[in-house]
Amino acid sequence: MNSDVEQSVAGLSLSEVEPGRRVRVEAIRAGRALNARLAAMGLLAGVEVKVIRRSLTGPLVLAIRDTRLMLGRGVARRIQVDAGPLADSASAGSGRNSGTPPTVPSGKTP
Amino acid sequence: MNKDRRITIALAGNPNCGKTTLFNNLTGARQHVGNYPGVTVEKKEGLCPFDGVQIAVVDLPGTYNLSSHSAEEVVAREFILRDKPDVVVHVVDASNIERHLYLGVQFMELGVPLVYALNMSDVAQARGLKFDLAKLSVFLGGPVVPTVGNRGEGTTALLQAVLDVSREPDRFPPPRLSYGREIDAALTRIAALLETTASLPAGLKSRWTALKLLEGDTWVAEQVRCLEVRDAVRQAATQLQGLFGEPPGTLIPGRRYGFISGACQESVQSTVELQHCWSDRIDTVVLSPLLGLPLFLALMYVVFQLTFAIGNAPVQWLENAFGWLAAGIAGAWPGGTDSPLCSLIVDGIIGGVGGVLAFVPNIMLLFLAIAVLEDSGYMARAAFIMDGIMHRIGLHGKSFIPMVIGFGCSVPAILATRTLDTRRDRLTTMMVAPLMSCGARLPIYSLFIPAFFPPRWQGPVLWLIYLTGIVLAVVAARVLRSTILRGRTTPLVMELPPYHVPTLKGCGLHTWERTWLYLRKAGTMILGFSVVLWAMTAYPKKTVFERDYDAEAGAARTQRDARVLDLAARTGLQINPDAIEARWPAAGARAGTVAATGDAFADACTAIETARRHFTPVAESTDGRELATQVVYFVQHRDAELRHLREHNPQVHDAALEYIDRIREPYRRECRELAAARQAELLAYSVSGRIGRALEPVLAPLGFDWRINAALLGALAGKELVVAQLGIVFAVEQEAGGGDGLRCRLQEAYSPLTGLCVMLFCLISAPCVATLATTKQEAGGWRWALLQTGGLTAMAYVVTLIVFQTGRLLGLGG
Question: Mind listing the pLDDT tens digit for each residue in B176-185?
């Protein structure tokens, strides 16, 4: 399937994003209920988010426009992001992502 | 216009949008809090007269969405669909308008008459946002009124707009949302099919139903049974998935946001980028890995202290007041204390009401603390901090707060689970909260531990018992999460609202509402149970006793009178014991308050007793160690008084001393013992006592005899009652300072192992009726309350059995 290919190329989940970085949500692999809940809080494919804080074992805090959202680790793992062109603080530490070419979302949001 | 017109409006909005403040502004004190039937979602209603119209305001639960994924959302949607309010007021946080309008768009889809309250507009303006209200109104299909909730601004304009819309609902035609050509076409097709197959559920609109079916809304899907429609929906969904690579459930929210940002681009001007600057700055401290946890623990400590340290003084006052009331009624009752009606009123009803009200100061303070934490925005941060740890137990980050409170009292702990969002988390927390050893269990430990353990071991044993409770709570939570409350841990998705200073009015109302709910629901139930338990210990009344108490009391009295006569004959004094007793006023009377009479003997008795009473409290309060100088002073003072008496009239002094110590004291002790023995016999004969005996074969493997069993029944009314019940069954004279006498009896009767087992059983077993009633109310059914009671009792049985039998095998006595 389409999303599986994307996963193997980009492969970056929100839970791996360093705090302070800005990323774009590519896809959310969650059930209907969670998807609807996240969408209602402004988290859906195509949206730009910034990771503000990440605790070692627990949840992380995101900024989506003017909303601060707390996400559990489990949820964050299911959110696939694209960190390429948007990273406004491409820190040296994020070498995990440096080799992958920026992916082009296929026919996503308008 | 009709003069006494009445309309209903619903307040809707996201959590933390200031909806509650607005509701309070609109309705003031004219509000009513209840629960929606069947669910534990608070339902708040209020009345707001405006311009000759009675406006009934319903505060819908705060939601982000109108799907059917949570109890709150279902409640909000069903209210709008079923009760059809005249106007829905959507409260929008002006500084975060796009996300808040996501809910508004769903109201538009429903086609209900809408008014928007652009709340906290002052903050938004200060942040550089400019709103073109007229344009926004056209886009959103309803008047947009700027309000400032915490200052009450814009309330009149809002009400005016509500009346306008209710009078002319057509003035603002709901805009027809477009979800893009393909989705629109699918919607039209499904809507038409719904109408031609006549499968549209009553009261629903075809396009909205089609939209919900396409989104995959389970509730709507259940309503539509027509297979043809279902096929069409499935087909459309597959087609859209193929076209866009995403299912309609993901596509449609995206299109909603597209509509919103289009509308906002046209009508909202942003001059600076919005920042959560203050909140983010506070969060760098509050959520920091280093300071977050200590700060949280410190705050919890403050909440705990506030609830129990400050709350305990008013609790004492209330208990004393009820004690006086009971004593007053019992004293003034014409038929004396043996009258069953008097006993019912004093022991059953006043005891029960007192039990209910005694919790109120604690509960109010706790709710106040929680309201402040919630309103300020800290509660969400607490969940962030605790989530990592609590997650491993299978609980939610927010579960920590009820658990801590449980150390004080299980009732407010269970009420505090209201802050948890999902039912599974709430129920798990509720079920295990009683394992946190509450304050009422402390008297049991402080009776048993000194009786059976040397001072060196007392601290560790107490610690061990508390720790056992915590460990068992963790185990029980894990078991529950993997059995009846199974399911993935609910994904943590939570908004961190910006911090703000909580308002006095908001917190006050919140506290009052919850306290009132407790009083009304749990209160009536606790009262009922208390009366039942009273009846169980009081009935059936034994009329034929094994001993003839009256005769024995008479014999004791005759013996005393004979001794008095002997003393009088030896000394040649006039002695009238009844007159002496009658003279002595209430305990604690000071010298001089008992007027001297001509009766020299009675005066001497009074003087001696006065001197002793002066001394005894001081000696007790200093514990015989500290304040030695003060003790010495009082000793000297007493001796001086007694010496004066002796020198003044040696014969009377010696006689009085003999009367007090050799005649009256033994007589009193005998009377007390007789009364206690009679009470013990009554209890053994009562339902409680019989149950205690009936339970003997079951509880004997735990090392318990019928006396402990009967005492444990008292634990149902309140854990601390175990001590009182044991006092009754062991027929310990209660006047004689309780504790030590009872401890000696316990020591004689049981081994330390049994003592430990009783404490363990009290820790784990069935919670008191107050907890039971609260669980029933909060979990929404007897099922959970009974499961809690049964489960905990079973657990207590197993744990105690293992401990007792292991201990016995190891030769620790039994």
Answer: 788 888 899 9
Domain boundary (B113, B143, B171) is at: B171
What pLDDT does residue B156 have? 92
pLDDT tier at A104 (50, 70, 90 boundaries)? very low
Check CB contact of B166 with chain A, cutoff 8 Å. no
Chain-centre distance of CA B676, in angstroms? 36
Higher pLDDT, B397 or A93: B397
Q: Is pLDDT of A29 > 90? A: no
CATH number at B55 reads: 3.40.50.300
User: Residue A78 is part of a domain; what is its CATH number?
Assistant: 2.30.30.90
Closest partner CB to A2 (pick from B95, B98, B245): B245
The verdict on residue B563 lying in a domain is yes
Identify the DSSP state of B350.
I
Count of domains for chain A: 1
Domain contains A105? no
> Do residues B269 and B129 lie in contact, with contact meaning Cβ atoms separated by under 8 Å?
yes
What is the tens place of the pLDDT at every residue in B329-354?
A: 877 777 666 677 877 777 777 776 77
Q: Are residues B205 and B166 in the same domain?
A: no
Residue of chain B nearest A108, judged by CA positions: B244
Distances (CA, A) of B393 to A50, B379, B415, B474, B806: 30, 20, 21, 6, 28
Name the DSSP class of B625: T
Tokens of A109: 């949001």
- Bridge partners of residue A80, in order along the sequence: A13, A27
pLDDT band at B34 (very low <50, low <70, confident <90, very high): low
* Residues of the domain holding A14: 2-89
Task: Determine the structural domain holding residue B120 and report its residue range.
Answer: 6-171
Based on the fold, state whether residues B21 and B151 are members of the same structural domain.
yes
8 Å CB contact of A72 and B495 = no
Put simply, whether A59 touches B (Cβ < 8 Å) is yes
CB-CB under 8 Å, B103 with A40: yes
Window 62-91 of B, Cβ < 8 Å to A = 64-65, 67, 69
Identify all chain A residues contacting B99, using CB atoms and an 8 Å cutoff. Answer: 41-42, 64-67
> Which residues does chain B have within 8 Å of residue A27's beta carbon, measured at their own beta carbons?
246
Question: Are the Cβ atoms of A66 and B276 closer than 8 angstroms?
Answer: yes
pLDDT in tens, B707-757: 888 888 878 777 777 777 777 777 654 444 445 677 877 888 888 999 999
CB contact under 8 A, B96 and A72: no
How far is A41 from chain B, CA to nearest CA, in Å?
6
At B582-607, the pLDDT tens digits run 665 443 344 444 455 566 777 777 77
Amino acid sitting at position B447: L
The answer to whether residue A104 is domain-embedded is: no
Judged by a CB distance cut-off of 8 A, whether residue B215 touches chain A is yes
In a domain, A51, yes or no: yes
Q: Which residues in chain A touch residue B384, judged by CB atoms under 8 angstroms apart?
A: 55, 58-59, 61, 70
- The nearest alpha carbon in chain B to A3 belongs to B245
Cβ-based contacts under 8 A for chains A and B: 139
How many domains are there within chain B? 3
> Is there a single domain that holds both residue B569 and residue B643?
yes
CATH number, residue B225 = 1.10.287.1770
- Rounded-to-integer distance, Cα B519 and Cα B528, Å: 13
Q: Considering chain B, what is the average pLDDT of its residues? A: 81
Identify whether A6 is part of a domain: yes
User: Can you tell me whether residue A81 is helix, strand or coil?
Assistant: strand
CA gap A30, B216 in Å, rounded: 14
Residue B121 belongs to a domain: yes
